Amino acid sequence: VQLVESGGGSVQAGGSLRLSCAASGRYNFNYAMGWFRQALGKEREFVAGIIRSGGATKYADSVKGRFTISRDDAKNTVYLQLDSLKPEDTATYYCVASWVFDDLVADKGLNYWGKGTQVTVSS
Length: 123
What we know:
It contains 1 helix and 11 strands. It has one helix at residues 101-106; strands spanning 2-6, 9-12, 17-24, 32-38, 45-50, 57-59, 67-72, 77-82, 91-98, 111-113, 117-122. β4 (32-38) and β5 form a beta hairpin. It is globular, with a radius of gyration of 13 Å.
């Protein structure tokens, strides 16, 4: 499974971005998909996950009500809409795919990762 993120950039606080993650290779819609982020000098942290289109989603408390995860299985793409951005959202955002949703959220097991896209929020 190969994952390629796009859509990162620099915005001011309060702004919005939409990240995309295109999946290919041995990917299919049965994979759970999600996003993690890692800020400079900090550990990687879970941001959002989705089981399947129209299925269960999960968000980190720090992004609830501001970020929205979705997926388009016809396009093998997962999205992360980032609204009301704050400077503390600045990080490299990584797309992840996993057979097991709980493993994805816990960042364990055999997961597939993209190379990341940078999001920078200025105050």
